[in-house]
Amino acid sequence: MRIIVSGGGTGGHIYPALALIERLKQVEPDTQVLYVGTDRGLENKIVPAAGLELKVLHTQGFKRSLSLENFKTAYLFLKAVHDAKKIIREFKPDVVLGTGGYVSGAVLYAAAKLHVPTVIHEQNSVVGITNKFLSRYVDEIAIAFDAARDQFPAAKVTMCGNPRAQQAAANANSDFSWTSYGLSDAKPVLMIFGGSQGAPKINASVVQAIPEFSKRDYQVVFATGQKRYDQVKEALKDVKVGSNVKVVPYIEDMPAKMPKVACLVSRAGATTIAEITALGIPTILIPSPYVTANHQVKNAMALVKNGAAAMITEDQLDGRSLLVQADRLMEDQAARDQMAQASKKMGRPDAADRLIKILYKAIADHQK
Ligand SMILES: CC(=O)N[C@H]1[C@@H](OP(=O)(O)OP(=O)(O)OC[C@H]2O[C@@H](n3ccc(=O)[nH]c3=O)[C@H](O)[C@@H]2O)O[C@H](CO)[C@@H](O)[C@@H]1O
Question: How many CB atoms lie within 10 A of CB 314?
């Protein structure tokens, strides 16, 4: 299969695309892939690292309020559509897949106008602005939460889950060792990260809690987000950080490491949730209150209701509340086991295979 994949900006849109590609190459080893992203997003780091060719377009998001900047955005969109058409004509894909982010708006719109089969994947329960716009033009829409169904044209929608779940499940028996982080494999690890880019309030709370974490019998791996690392290091300059606590900018190859985590603290982004439920990882979710229609709270509540996660809302978050919840789980294996079981029941470990079927369907329907 020749496939163009486009999704950009944050890890939550990029990792599902990469997981799909990894699986597609297992099913069809001669698959040819071109990734189209923005010139600024995390894809510039993640996609080449995965050994894929990346072409970039310059786009930006529309402001919700009336703004002069929106004229520039509209111009950039039209230019990006024009450039995307050129890329599509040259690459001649059998199908184009969009996984969200502004750049996928231009690429999928261009593909639809060129009558190339198109599929979009929506990771969230509340549909993103780009996918909402594209839903009129594309052939097929794959969703990961039932709640997204009614927000799209019914005939195009198929439940599939998030391909990153299948990748996570496939790595469940990972042989990763925490010794590469200077930690022990004999003691449980609490992993903390605020989404793919880090989150200021989570970072500040972890900084407050570090003197106590440093006295615990468990270990802590804390990712600050690439751009926030220096700031956190500065805040920690007079704090004695125990040898059981590791502070890093970013955690690479998460599917290898997540199975080796006893408990996780994280934002409630859809892709993170797909990973933790695929593996059944006890998690304390801290939903971001800064996202469209508060969708992370909805993502989180779906798990909390089933006993699959605990939640701290951002307004209740500080070093103290974080520590209390973390201790409660890290010091109670039975509570962790119970949460793990409930979480795993919600996982969709065949999501990539389902998405591949949807790609085949879009291609076949065009050949009729
Ligand atoms: C602020 C914002 O707009 N967030 C959105 C964005 O979040 P964001 O990009 O943070 O999305 P997710 O939480 O869904 O995904 C984060 C991904 O990054 C990985 N990871 C994270 C930290 C790290 O150090 N290393 C690493 O590999 C995680 O394992 C996961 O695969 O996209 C998600 C999916 O569309 C949405 O649900 C989120 O609401």
Answer: 17
Is the shortest distance between the CB of 123 and ligand 1 below 6 Å? yes
Angle at Cα 21 formed by Cα 52 and Cα 252, nearest 5°?
Answer: 65
In a shared domain, residues 143 and 192: no
Do 317 and 310 meet the contact criterion of CB atoms below 8 Å apart? no
Predicted TM-score of the model (pTM): 0.91
pLDDT in tens, 311-351: 999 999 999 999 999 999 999 999 999 999 999 999 999 99
Same domain assignment for residues 222 and 275: yes
ipTM: 0.94
The residues, ordered by sequence, that sit 6+ positions from 172 with a Cβ below 8 Å of its Cβ are 259, 279
325 and 237 in a common domain? yes
CA angle, corner 282, sides to 187 and 226, nearest 5? 80
**Domain containing 227: what range?**
170-346
pLDDT tens column, 156-181: 999 999 999 999 999 999 999 999 99
Residues placed in the known binding site for UDP-N-acetyl-alpha-D-glucosamine = 10-12, 124, 196, 251, 296
Contact yes or no for 342/308 (Cβ under 8 A): yes
Query: Binding site, residues?
Result: 10-12, 124, 196, 251, 296
Token output for 326: 């973390």
For residues 297 and 287, give the distance between their C-alpha atoms in angstroms, rounded to a whole number. 5
**Closest-CA residue to 80 (of 152, 3, 8, 135):** 8
